[in-house]
Structures are given as structure tokens and as C-alpha cells.
Amino acid sequence: MASFVERFTDLAGRRSPLCLGLDPSEELLGQWGLENDAEGLRRFCGTVLEAAGDLVAVVKPQMGFFERLGPKGLNELAVATAQIRSQGSLCLIDAKRGDVAGTMEGYAVAMLGAGSGFGGDAVTVSAYLGFGALQPMFSRAITLGAGVFVVVQSSNPDGRLLQDARHPDGRTVAEALADDITAFNASQGAGIGVLGAVVGATIDPAATAIIDRLPQALILAPGVGAQGANMAEVGTKFRSAQGRVLPSVSRAILRHGPSLVGLRDAIERYREAAWSACDAEPSLAVS
Ligand SMILES: O=C(O)c1cc(=O)[nH]c(=O)n1[C@@H]1O[C@H](COP(=O)(O)O)[C@@H](O)[C@H]1O
């Protein structure tokens, strides 16, 4: 099985590096005229994925928007995940899990791999309980050719106080986490490693040195659109990670539904913008 990095690089070249966020919030369901229940979730996700077709490299369902409806919502996540994979896209489950090592084993089994509960190709994690505690997720990702994205610098201002706090050696928490990711990836070999980083597209242009500490990592950059960042900025701020950035857009695309044409137009626009901002020329036409 090709690694997540290999599969992403291939798809980004053919489909663009855009990551489409699948966030079926109560608010969006309401705007679409759907009921806030499992059937509403299914119709919402089905419509978004029909519009995405084979245009998108990565789809990122945000787990909280499914979990909020309990087991029925989680069942819809599994349905969406299967559809994402059947469309040849990579499924990045945005779960932001983080716990002691023994418990991480449970999350790893639930999230990663075709035979798992949710069948993700990759997952987001939080290192608040320690980078080392995430090891079971890393090990499972290596075994399965999956990916793990560790939150380093989040897109929301609320994260600053915690992420900018300093270790005794002077590095911020975010910098130290970036260094941990780099050391782990380097220990696995040269090239882009199994560990990616989440760095918000909204980060201050003066704070982009964090990107230089992640030379062997894919970088998930949420915050484009509704949170105020735009694709051109992503291209500038993340220039040193060219070809390794997944700019992520949720509401700015999803608000164009339920019209399939509206959704598809928005996906096409962000896809082209992501291509020109984050990557070289499109290498192949989309089939
Ligand atoms: O891991 C994420 O995707 C994430 C990290 C972060 O720092 N900020 C952030 O907004 N996200 C997620 O990215 C999505 C952003 O949605 P929009 O602001 O609507 O594009 C949401 O699903 C968030 O949970």
C-alpha cells in the first residue's frame, strides 16, 4: 500500500491540493432546508460528495458535527467516509484526539485503515497529553500507510496563549511540537514523513518561521474562507512548504449548497486557487 504522503502527492498533482472540509453543522443543515437529524446529515454529505466527485484530493469530515447526533450521527460518518474513499479521495478524519498512550491505541484502531470503525486515511490529533503519548497512533499509521496531523498552531486566536507559551529552553510550545514532528519524521528516513502538522492559514505573517521547522511534514492549513484567510495568503505564508500544503475550506464552500452547481462552482474556484497558491502547475487534467 502506498503511503498517505505518496497518495496525497499523486492526487494533489491531478486534482489540486485543496482539502474540502465536510462540516454538517446544525446551522448549515438549516440553511440547506434539511432536518437536523441523521437523514439530514446523509443528504448533506451525499450532496457535497456528489458535487466533489473526482475533483478533490482530500475530504476532511469534522467528527464533532457527526458525534453531536450520537450513534446515528457516527453511522453517517462511516457512510460518508466510505463514499469519500469510493470517489478516490483521501479521507482525513478531523477528530483531534489526544490521550494517554493506552487510550490512543483505541482511537487509532477506531480511526485509521480501511477495516477500522471509521476507515480514515489520516486523522488529526492533539498533543496536550504529550507528544509521546500519541505514539500508538503513529505506529498504526506507519503500519497502515496512513497519516497523522498533529495540531501545532491552530487557526483560532484562543489557542495562542497555550501554543505561544515558552519552554525553559526558550522555544514556544508550538515550536517544540514542530521540532518533535521533524525529529520523528527524520527518524523514519529522508523525505516527507508520516506525521503532518496543522498550522492555521490565519497565522500572523510574522510567525511563519514555524513552517521552516517542519521541512519533512505535510501541512494542513485550515482557516481559509470563513475564518478570514485567503488562498493567496496561504501561498505567501507557506511558500517554504510548497507542494506539501493542504489548504482546507469548509463553510466558504458548503454555504453554496444545496445547489449542486453552486457547490461544484465553489469547489472548482477554491481548487484552482489552491493549485496556483500552493503547488506548481496542474500536472494532469481531471478525469
Ligand atoms: O484541524 C482542523 O481542521 C482545524 C484546526 C484549526 O486550527 N482550526 C480549524 O478551524 N480546524 C477545523 O477546520 C474547519 C474550519 O472550517 P471553516 O472555517 O468553515 O473553513 C473546522 O472543521 C475546524 O474544526
Describe the structure.
With 287 residues, the protein is an alpha/beta fold. 45% of the residues lie in helices and 14% in strands. The chain is built from 13 helices and 8 strands. It has helices at residues 4-15, 26-31, 38-52, 64-67, 70-86, 101-111, 135-144, 160-163, 173-188, 209-212, 231-237, 251-254, 260-278, and strands at residues 19-22, 58-61, 90-97, 122-125, 147-153, 195-199, 219-222, 245-249. α7 links the parallel β4 and β5 (147-153). It is globular. Residues 280-287 have low confidence and may be disordered. Bound molecules: orotidine-5'-monophosphate.
Q: What is the average of the pLDDT values?
A: 95
CA-atom Rg in angstroms: 18 Å
Low-confidence stretches: 280-287
Strand element count: 8
CATH superfamily: Aldolase class I
Query: What are the bound molecules?
Result: orotidine-5'-monophosphate
Structural class comes to alpha/beta
Give the CA-CA distance, first to last residue: 23 Å
What is the fold named in CATH at topology level?
Answer: TIM Barrel
CATH architecture: Alpha-Beta Barrel
Task: Count the domains.
Answer: 1
Which outline best applies?
globular
Q: Helix segment count?
A: 13
CATH class: Alpha Beta
Q: Strand order across the biggest sheet?
A: 1-2-3-4-5-6-7-8
SSE sequence, one letter per element: HEHHEHHEHEHEHHEHEHEHH
Report on the biggest sheet.
Answer: 8 strands, parallel, barrel
Helix fraction, binned, reads 40-55%
Pathway: Pyrimidine metabolism; UMP biosynthesis via de novo pathway; UMP from orotate: step 2/2
Family: Belongs to the OMP decarboxylase family. Type 2 subfamily.
Enzyme class: lyase
Organism: Microvirga lotononidis
